[in-house]
Design the sequence.
């Protein structure tokens, strides 16, 4: 099995670009279903998000504007602009309205509770994580109303300490770490066994056990509700622990179909190797493999940490190299889907038109049905019968804004590059102003 996984990597790494076959339309026809106000707001917000100086100063500007305007006016302005553009709403009825509007546009919701924790932001006791468990279970319920094949996003660090994730990640890199923190041992703790890892303190073992039970309980509820759980990747210093936990959840719940999906960041130099190894592990252990394929969102932070701590930069050196990595990983996964669309499934989470078009061409060549459910897309510029999901957080303005600011700061290189979407918004606005058909 491992040898076969190696052959997958060789084929994917050497794949030639697919010839131009079927093309996905990026003409923005879906925008005709949006109101003029929504088009104007979208164009303004995307332009503002593409200004590095504004995004860099966003926390200060938000704090000052709140003091000057007062909470009510401040909240109203944000709801009419950034919050309204990116957030599904605050209450379940508001989220429900957004979900129905997305479905009318031919899009499927990919809801996210914007809760996460970084190292140094540790919360006291289990109360914070237990509260988050309730919020995530609420997300399961809302996602279940999103139509066929509903999905949701999950941050492990909402339910498990980021500090502990870093500790486990470090242990995994030490001699004997892989056997100590094996997938089987983690699965056993999820099944009710006591956590007793020698590399952790008694307090860390207790928190690990509580966290794994939380994650397993959320997954069980999602499976019962028919909702697929897409586990987000985060920073490199916690990702090994996140992947371990996610693979353990796959081992417990992905026996008949992929309910739990892991996220792979193609801007990491080792992404293709890790992806191939995990795919081979899934086949060897007999569980289904779900993948969310992204380029990556923490570029500036990862490079800064590498400089400050004196270790090699884990990212590809150029945008072009990242694009090659994304295509190679995509080719690998599409070949696996073509072999067995139940065993391996994929969401192409990219706004990059070249990547999406390449995926469409390869799907046609490999005989992968566009409506078969094995491959879907995380972008909104084209439809043509493909399953397309729109990632949207929800929650109160005060809770969601820090998340939106972090995402904008982390994605500056991406935000400045979303010219296609801005062009389509502008074109549709002009069409209406000039009253063209």
Sequence:
């Amino acid at each position: 099995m491992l040898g076969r996984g190696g052959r997958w990597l060789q084929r994917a790494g050497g794949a030639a670009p697919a010839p131009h076959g079927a093309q996905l339309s990026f003409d923005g026809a879906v925008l005709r279903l949006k109101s003029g106000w929504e088009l104007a707001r979208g164009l303004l917000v995307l332009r503002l998000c593409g200004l590095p100086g504004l995004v860099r100063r966003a926390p200060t500007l938000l704090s000052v504007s709140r003091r000057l305007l007062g909470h009510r006016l401040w909240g109203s302005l944000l709801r009419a602009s950034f919050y309204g553009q990116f957030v599904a709403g605050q209450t379940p009825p508001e989220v429900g309205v957004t979900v129905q509007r997305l479905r009318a546009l031919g899009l499927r919701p990919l809801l996210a509770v914007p809760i996460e924790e970084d190292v140094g932001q540790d919360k006291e006791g289990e109360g914070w994580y237990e509260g988050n468990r309730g919020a995530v279970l609420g997300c399961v319920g809302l996602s279940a109303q999103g139509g066929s094949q509903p999905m949701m996003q999950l941050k492990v660090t909402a339910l498990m300490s980021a500090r502990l994730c870093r500790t486990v990640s470090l242990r995994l890199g030490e001699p004997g770490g892989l056997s100590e923190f094996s997938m089987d041992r983690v699965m056993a703790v999820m099944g009710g066994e006591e956590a007793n890892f020698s590399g952790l303190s008694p307090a860390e073992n207790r928190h690990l056990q509580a966290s794994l039970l939380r994650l397993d309980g959320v997954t069980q509820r999602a499976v019962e509700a028919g909702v697929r759980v897409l586990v987000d990747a985060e920073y490199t210093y916690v990702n090994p622990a996140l992947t371990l936990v996610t693979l353990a959840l796959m081992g417990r719940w992905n026996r008949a179909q992929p309910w739990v999906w892991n996220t792979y960041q193609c801007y990491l130099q080792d992404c293709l190797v890790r992806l191939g190894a995990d795919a081979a592990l899934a086949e060897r252990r007999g569980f289904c493999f779900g993948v969310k394929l992204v380029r990556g969102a923490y570029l500036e932070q990862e490079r800064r940490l590498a400089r400050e701590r004196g270790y090699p930069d884990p990212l590809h050196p150029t945008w072009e190299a990242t694009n090659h990595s994304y295509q190679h990983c995509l080719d690998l996964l599409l070949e696996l889907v073509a072999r067995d669309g139940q065993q391996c499934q994929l969401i192409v989470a990219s706004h990059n038109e070249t990547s999406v078009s390449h995926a469409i061409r390869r799907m046609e060549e490999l005989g992968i049905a566009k409506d078969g459910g094995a491959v879907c897309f995380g972008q909104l510029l084209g439809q043509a019968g493909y399953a397309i999901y729109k990632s949207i957080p929800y929650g109160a303005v005060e809770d969601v804004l820090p998340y939106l600011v972090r995402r904008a700061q982390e994605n500056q290189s991406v935000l400045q590059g979303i010219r296609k979407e801005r062009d389509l918004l502008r074109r549709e606005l002009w069409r209406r102003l000039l009253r063209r058909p």
Confidence is low (pLDDT under 50) at residues 1-23.
